[in-house]
Amino acid sequence: MTRVSEHLNRALHDLLAADPGVHLLGEDITDPYGGAFKVTRGLSGRFGDRVRSTPLSEGAVVGVGAGLALAGRKAIVEIMFADFATLAFDQLVNFAAASTSMYGRPVPIPLVVRCPSGGNRGYGPTHSQSPQKHFLGVPGLHVFELSPFHDAGRLLETMLALGRPCLLFEDKVLYTRRMYEDGVVDELFRYEVTGGVARVFLEGAAEPDCTLVVHGGMAHRALAAMRDLLLEEDVVCELLVPSQLYPLPDLPGLERAGHVCVVEDGSEGGGWGAEVARVLHPRLWSTLRRPITLVASAPSVIPAAPHLEREVLVQPGHIRHAIMEALS
Amino acid sequence: MIDTFPPFASPRSAPPPAEEDLRLLLLIRHFELTLLRLFEAGQLSGTTHTCLGQEYIPVALKPLLEGDDFVFSNHRGHGHFLARHTDPHGLLAEIMGREGALCSGVGGSQHVYHRRFLSTGVQGESLPVAVGTALTLKDTGALTCVYIGDGTWGEGSVYEALNMARLWEVPLLVVVEHNGIAQSTPTTAQMAGTVAGRAAAFGIPHHRTASTEIDEIRAELALLVAEVRSASVPLVVEFATHRIGPHSKGDDTRTPEEIALAADHDWYTRYAGLFPEAFGRLDREMRELVERAAADVSARPPSVWERP
């Protein structure tokens, strides 16, 4: 059994070993600390100067990463909490993303900005957010998310090969979960990954009553809802988890879905779900029986106290309720 | 604007600059004047920021920079570019959106990337990027040069970048064109303390010069810049300079007296008076060269961009 954080740590080790042009920057990422979530453990001892702990300067550190990339290297920057990625907004939007095309020809900027995101850990309003939505729709900027289905090494390689700046969101609770292996989720569900999209399905089931589309950090809560819906409501769900959130890749099999529900951890309003629906509605208009259901966290700050935090962030019960309401 | 620098800080008896330098100075001057003329004639779109009066800075730095160096420029970057790559046609085509444009007309006046020369339009944004490139040049003998203005020091990214530059000992040459005015705001109204004090806070060597004499500036800077290369350390060079033109196009809110005071420092009128014959000949030559370039570029078809 491999925990997601260990899996990612191993992927970083392999990447830095395989490619001497890769640099890693971030706050407190060197040993013995090894990063706030221990994802970079063991890297500084092994790769020396290519792994640098930085001052508390998110904006400039992302700029340094872009400079390394401009000079022909590859850079991975860790932002300790995704909430702080707002401090790097100018570097990401006006420099890294814009530079890939504003000079009239493709300028490669192989830069990955890793952002531990999400709540359910009681960290409070400025350490729990899922700010993916603020980075959608920026020309030249790609948004990815870690999942328990996607191989992190392949994901890192894919992002760096794009030659465009990428944000990689990594759910902090997901770090503690195990990676799924060999196509098996549990005794009910199986999974396969094709074209960067993980599809979780009930073996032997025909057309699903509902297909859920979620980002990686929402996978376990979606799975819990799917299990309850199956066992208690006799509703068959399928789950799609794309590793690339923006631009949205092709999502397979939706034409045969009875209903589509997009779930995101970000706060309601102007979110990823709306972007997914924008892409899917024209494509599925002739087969959809009802509007796509969007589930998001409450339009609220995220409280620190666990009982209050649970009320704000999407829980399995919210998903189940939204789907039952839509199907009724 | 409060002017703290005496006009003609350099001796009036200094020998004329080398013909090559004077030629480049005049190329930049006539390039900028041509842009303003084209704007008035309605032949340019958008905006532009000319470096009238400040041309001598990139010209003085030219031989101090090497081919492998990165150069980062800002909104007022035409002189920086022309001193690095003598391609007025390519730059003008970029500004006019015509065939042969350096960046297909996408970047325009403020966003040019050509062989390790890169300009961007957001103040202070380039400094952290410059530190990133300088990290890769550490101990290679090459450096990254980044031009900023006095107004740029209002941006937090400057301090984040200077901190890392010193901490990680990267070969970074920060050239501050301190012209005493940020768009319309005098430096005295937007900067507490001094550039020197701010550099000192990071333990970064700082050199200020009020000279406008190219050879004198080179003599002052040669060893300092060599040290940036050999010891991989950052350096801040502050030029006390004067913007004799508007911020962009006709948006000068300074009083006639303030503008006249800035114009008193203009190398152009000084050289014209000191070496009228040689100056007149080269002045004519470069004016005609830029006029021909403008006619040539204006007649070209629009630039084509393959949007990704």
Automatic annotation (TrEMBL), chain A:
Listed Pfam families: Transket_pyr, Transketolase_C
Alphabetical list of Gene3D superfamilies matching this protein: 3.40.50.920, 3.40.50.970
Question: What keywords would UniProt list here?
Answer: Oxidoreductase, Pyruvate, Thiamine pyrophosphate
Q: Which GO molecular function terms does the record list?
A: magnesium ion binding; oxidoreductase activity
- Answer whether the UniProt record assigns the keyword Lipoprotein to this protein: no
Keyword Protein biosynthesis applies: no
Q: Boundaries of each Transketolase-like pyrimidine-binding domain copy?
A: 2-177
Which cofactors does this gene product need? thiamine diphosphate
Record PANTHER family: PYRUVATE DEHYDROGENASE E1 COMPONENT BETA SUBUNIT, PYRUVATE DEHYDROGENASE E1 COMPONENT SUBUNIT BETA
Please report the name of this protein according to its UniProt entry: Pyruvate dehydrogenase
Q: Which organism is it from?
A: Planobispora takensis
UniProtKB/TrEMBL annotation, chain B:
**Protein origin, superkingdom:** Bacteria
A molecular-function term among this protein's GO annotations:
oxidoreductase activity, acting on the aldehyde or oxo group of donors, disulfide as acceptor
For biological process, the GO terms are: pyruvate decarboxylation to acetyl-CoA
- InterPro entries annotated for this entry? DH_E1 (IPR001017), PDH_E1_Alpha_Subunit (IPR050642), THDP-binding (IPR029061)
Domain called Dehydrogenase E1 component: residue spans: 27-271
Entry keyword set: Oxidoreductase, Thiamine pyrophosphate
Mind telling me which CDD domains this protein's record contains? Answer: TPP_E1_PDC_ADC_BCADC
Q: Which cofactor does it need?
A: thiamine diphosphate
Q: Which PANTHER family match?
A: PYRUVATE DEHYDROGENASE ALPHA SUBUNIT, PYRUVATE DEHYDROGENASE E1 COMPONENT, ALPHA SUBUNIT BACTERIAL AND ORGANELLAR
What is the protein named?
A: Dehydrogenase
